[in-house]
Amino acid sequence: MDFLTIIGFVGAFGLIIMAMGDPTPFIDIPSIQIVILGTFAAVVARSSVPELIGTMSAVMKTVKYKIDKPEDLIEELVNLGTIARKDGMIALEGQDINNPFMAKGIRMLVDGMEGSTIKSSLEREMGMIKKRNAESINVIGSVQEIAPAMGMVGTLVGLVIMLGNMSDPKSIGPAMAIALLTTMYGAIIANVLCVPLAQKLVKHDAADGLNYELIIEGVMFIQSGGNPRMLTDLLLSFVNPKARGKLEAAAG
User: What pLDDT digit, counting tens, does each position of 73-130 carry?
Assistant: First the structure.
């Protein structure tokens, strides 16, 4: 679980609420309708159902998803390669592999598929995963763009209401609240919520992409029957320089 995401959001919204003092004046139903519900409706209009479902799943992953460390994946691939070289590919069947992408590659090795078929299948799988990630990032980017625009719409609505009722002092306050609060809601949604989420998803997608490439290289090396002791050197470029010492020591 990514506790930094939770800490960041709780801290950001907590500080905003603390600065408000009494949050009651900052809650305005018309402003919520214009910005929050209006933004949701506009995003629904530009998205498909799979994109919306995928985005909700991706947002949950920013909190719950654990990215595998490249060095751990290399150690696992070396271990699997050692088993395959010693006892044959069939010995890989039933091995406990947590990474679904790696598990798929190993299953294809066990099934005796050709190397070109395995590589094309894994690359296609990687491409589809990255495509779904890009769709989720685009949906969040749409929210980031639309929320401030809806805030501006709310500001104009509030100003029109206020200017149309200047003779009634009691109507000026609620109209001004709409004008100001919609802008605030839009800015909070875009900058406090969407920007960190989009950046986190981009970071996860990049890290996963490197891991997928690492796994493809490792699986193809195992398929070719190469010496597992050389696999670490082959995949070392995927690892942060600070973490390479442990792998190099293990490889001898």
Answer: 998 999 999 999 888 899 998 888 999 999 999 999 999 899 899 999 999 999 999 9
CB 249 within 8 A of CB 138: no
State residue 66 phi and psi, 5-degree precision.
Answer: -115, 120
Q: What is the pTM of this model?
A: 0.83
Residue position matching structure tokens 């719950």: 64
* pLDDT category of residue 251 using cuts at 50, 70 and 90: low
In 10 A of CB 145, how many CB atoms?
A: 15
The token duo for 43 is 């995003």
Residue 207's identity, in one-letter code, is: A
For the stretch 124-140, pLDDT in tens is 999 999 999 999 999 99
Q: For the chain, what is the domain count?
A: 1
Residue 230: give the domain boundaries: 26-71+114-251
The answer to whether the beta carbons of residues 76 and 97 sit under 8 Å apart is: yes
In a domain, 179, yes or no: yes
The answer as to whether 6 is a domain residue is: no
List all residues 6 or more positions away from 186 whose beta carbon is below 8 Å from its beta carbon. 35, 39, 147, 148, 149, 150, 151, 152, 154
Please compute the mean of the pLDDT values over residues 227-243 and round it to a whole number. 81
